[in-house]
Amino acid sequence: MAVYKQNYFQRRTKDKGPRSNNRIISPEVQVIASNGDNLGILNTNEAIAMAKEEGLDLIEIAPNAKPPVCKIIDMGKYKYDAQKKANKAKKKQKKIELKEIKLRPVTETHDYQFKIKNAQKFISKGDKVKFTIRFKGRELQHSHLGHELMTKIKEDMKEIGKVELDPKFDGKQMIMVIQPL
């Protein structure tokens, strides 16, 4: 008879999913039958026997409750339903992106209008827009031009967006973030 010893370096894997059947550690559990009826608080071994009678599993639904809530259901069906629910939640999720628009303090009016139109498009799609005004050389001495440009941007964007991050200097550039209303 061979005795297998666990290798010292062998990785122990954590069980995925809820505890079921003999892995339930609580002596008493609140049991919900396969048809949805509440059977009350039962001994864990009795509940497992009832589940086996029906050819199903006893699965711990709410492990933190006192006593834990368990349901008599097929384990495969439970995992399948949980996966479907997670996929549905993931599909409904909206990922907000941060789009960046770069300007200079001496940007001409046509270029400015073009960039503002793009920013409005981004915000209407639900994305945030980061405006960056980059200063080169002696332009840094005229930072008031950057402030004037940022206030003009705020005025043009106030119908569809609000300022999330007020204009501030970050090295040789000024940054402002606008988010959808």
Description:
- The protein has four helices and eight strands.
- With 181 residues, it is α/β, with parallel strands linked by helices.
- The protein folds into two domains: 68 residues, Ubiquitin-like (UB roll), CATH 3.10.20.80; 83 residues, Translation initiation factor 3 (IF-3), C-terminal domain (Translation Initiation Factor IF3), CATH 3.30.110.
- The strands form two sheets. It has a four-stranded mixed beta sheet with strand order 2-1-4-3.
- The protein is elongated and about 80 Å long.
- 18% of the residues are buried.
- The model has no long low-confidence stretch (mean pLDDT 86).
Characteristics of this structure?
four-stranded mixed sheet; single chain; Ubiquitin-like (UB roll); alpha/beta; 4 helices; 8 strands; elongated; 181 residues; Translation Initiation Factor IF3; 29% strand; 2 domains
Instruction: Give start-end ranges of low-pLDDT stretches.
Output: none
CATH level 1 name of the largest domain: Alpha Beta
**Main sheet record:** 4 strands, mixed
User: How big a fraction of the residues is strand?
Assistant: 25-35%
What is the general shape? elongated
Annotated CATH homologous superfamily of the largest domain: Translation initiation factor 3 (IF-3), C-terminal domain
Q: Using the coordinates shown, work out and report the CATH topology of the largest domain.
A: Translation Initiation Factor IF3
| Rg, nearest Å | 30 Å
Q: Find the count of extended strands (DSSP E, 2+ residues).
A: 8
Order of helices and strands: EEHEEHEHEHEE
